[in-house]
Amino acid sequence: INLGFSPPDVSLERLQNSGITEGLSFAFRQLSQGGGPSKMRERVKAEFQERYGENLSDEELRLAAREDMMQRMEAQLEAEGVDVKGVTNVMEEMSRRNRELFALPPYVLYVARAF
């Protein structure tokens, strides 16, 4: 909230429940370790292998991460009382619901280029 990723009128609890903070935390954790895109890719792959299995191919890791993300989004929608079986595109629904919670501040592009 204080960094400009969400409007000041959004409560911290609502922001945390949206799941946005987890993604931002992951991105900043990777950026803070430096090393450029290739090192970041290596760290992300290592973290995904730790989560989903060391013997998976890159494509299998991608599919496992996507499935995990979809399950988390469905669980969040269900917790909010949404019938996920009635929502044909869970990602679209999450985007619609979280649109007012998240904005990419202009300074982020400059910070990202520094890495």
Estimate the global geometry from the Cα principal axes: flat
- What are the low-pLDDT stretches, counting only 5+ consecutive residues below 50? none
Count of DSSP H/I helices: 6
Which strand-content bin applies to the residues? under 5%
N-end to C-end Cα span: 23 Å
Helix content: 55-70%
Description of the structure:
The chain is mostly helical and 115 residues long. The chain is 66% helix and 0% strand. It has six helices and no strands. Helix 3 crosses helix 4 (58-79). The two termini are 23 Å apart. The model has no long low-confidence stretch (mean pLDDT 78).
Secondary structure layout:
Elements: H1 12-18, H2 20-32, H3 36-52, H4 58-79, H5 90-98, H6 107-114
Helix pairs in contact: 3-4
In short:
About 65% of the residues lie in helices and about 0% in strands.
Please give a handful of descriptors for the protein shown.
single chain
